[in-house]
């Protein structure tokens, strides 16, 4: 018998990459989560499902206690569901080992908070540069990227200011630059307009919308703010841990 094998039939050829279906950016599938307080069992999320298939701005809405923070904690893999799955770019987050978590968050996620959470002793530029520290870049490359990102959010003229020398809206712009400078596909924002007056909040939302479109970044925003819900491409509405819209 010779060594030559017959050529594979067309059916057994691997599919070309272009024809392979892409997984959703985010898939939340039948997720349930409860907490325990002594003998009490508190159900925070029940059978929650949704997916994000394209880079979008998605609002997570619902009254206090409806499960928004619980959901954000699962998306950031600060916690894992009791049952169901959260998949980012096809990867089940529960399968990430504790040792690989920092790297996962650095590579894939950005965070924006209500209180901005900038380091008060560092300048705007240093706060943004710091987010690039885990990456294999020279100091000059980090500086260059951080400046470019700050310019992009309209803060190129305040590089040396410390957070205490900036307005709330300016601090949130710096925080958004920090979240996006590593070019994550996915940004998790917790009430990003909660500490801002209404004009500044509208400007920050405009910026988020622009960055979503120009950088193809997906934003998931937990909020009570109706303006966020108006701007969002889709709204996941929670009540008592269940999806109602
Ligand atoms: N660590 C915990 N231990 C026990 N119960 C908790 C814990 N965290 C949240 N809960 C409960 O789970 C439910 C969902 O809480 P969650 O914080 O997710 O709501 P939320 O929509 O983010 O509220 P808010 O808008 O006030 O931040 C609530 O009933 C809450 O009391």
TrEMBL record:
Domain of life, source organism: Bacteria
Keyword Transcription regulation in record: no
Region of interest: Disordered: 1-22
Boundaries of every ABC transporter domain copy: 26-244
Pfam family, one: ABC_tran
Coiled-coil segments on the chain, per record: none
Composition bias, Pro residues: 1-11
Entry keywords, A to Z: ATP-binding, Cell membrane, Membrane, Nucleotide-binding, Transport
Entry-linked InterPro entries: AAA+_ATPase, ABC_transporter-like_ATP-bd, ABC_transporter-like_CS, ABC_transpr_LolD-like, MacB-like_ATP-bd, P-loop_NTPase
Protein name per Swiss-Prot or TrEMBL: ABC transporter ATP-binding protein
Native source organism of the sequence: Parachitinimonas caeni
């Amino acid at each position: 018998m010779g060594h030559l094998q017959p050529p594979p039939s067309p059916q057994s050829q691997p599919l070309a990459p272009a024809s392979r279906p892409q997984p959703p950016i985010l898939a939340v599938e039948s997720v349930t989560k409860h907490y325990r307080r002594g003998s009490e069992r508190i159900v925070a999320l029940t059978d929650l499902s949704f997916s994000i298939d394209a880079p979008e701005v998605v609002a997570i809405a619902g009254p206090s206690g409806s499960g928004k923070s619980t959901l954000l904690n699962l998306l950031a893999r600060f916690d894992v569901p009791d049952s169901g799955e959260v998949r980012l770019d096809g990867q089940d987050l529960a399968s990430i080992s504790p040792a690989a978590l920092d790297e996962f968050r650095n590579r894939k996620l950005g965070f924006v908070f209500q209180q901005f959470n900038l380091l008060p002793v560092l300048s705007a530029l240093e706060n943004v540069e710091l987010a690039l520290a885990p990456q294999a870049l020279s100091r000059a490359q980090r500086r260059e990227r951080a400046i470019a990102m700050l310019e992009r959010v309209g803060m190129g003229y305040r590089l040396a200011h410390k957070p205490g020398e900036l307005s709330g809206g300016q601090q949130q712009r710096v925080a958004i630059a920090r979240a996006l400078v590593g070019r994550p596909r996915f940004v998790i924002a917790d009430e990003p307009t909660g500490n801002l007056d209404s004009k500044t909040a509208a400007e920050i939302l405009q910026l988020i919308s622009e960055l979503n479109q120009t950088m193809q970044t997906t934003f998931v925003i937990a909020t009570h703010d109706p303006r966020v819900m108006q701007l969002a491409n889709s709204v996941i509405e929670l009540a008592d841990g269940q999806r109602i819209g």
